Amino acid sequence: MTQTAQKNDTIRVVIVEDYKLTRVGLKSTLNEYEHIDVIGEAEDAYEGIKIIQKEKPNVVLMDLGLPGMNGLEATIKIKEFSPETKVIILTSHERNEEVIAALGAGANAYCLKDITPETLSEVIKNVADGACWVDPGVSSAALNFFPKPENITLIQTQEVKDARAQLTERELEVLRHLVKGKSNTEIAKELIVSVHTAKAHVCSILQKLCVDDRVQAAVKAIKENII
User: Fold this and answer.
1) What is the pTM of this model?
2) Which range among 40-44, 143-147, 191-195 shows the weakest confidence by mean pLDDT?
3) What are the angstrom distances between the C-alpha of 74 and each of 114, 124, 183?
């Protein structure tokens, strides 16, 4: 069976949660659903990663507040060695910064622990099929992460308009990360793409902006208000 769950396949799930009572409750509840099979559980990220590397589950339920390596760090590592594995953050943390950080780390969904079993089972199914999901209680954080039209300068020179027109939406997104000084590896993690793809976007940006390096691209983007 491949890691990508097909519509009628059983979804293989690993739970990473430091509270034993929570783990046991989740496993017992989720195994009641025919389309879900909890194949492993771990009380910390280190043990969880070993299980995930061995079992190659479709979905991982990941707590944020883990001892040692936290859930964000674990998610990044999982996405590095198994990008096909879907990671669902299941936590009581509701801060906007944590929501954004989790999504930036590569999480496919962000759920709060007061979620109903029925909803969680549906989230697992949908995420396994390729969907993303954010709990309504923290969805505003995800929405506010994207730039609003009113924050974009309306009056621009034709040169700036031309520069923007040359760049695709994805390249503009990569350019924003360049301005923040992020490396190709960091950009790849943010966009959930390969490092090779991130590098290709950067090369295309340098060519379109007629600059020699990343620093010049960032300076031009800020100076000419391209982003």
Assistant:
1) 0.62
2) 143-147
3) 23, 19, 20
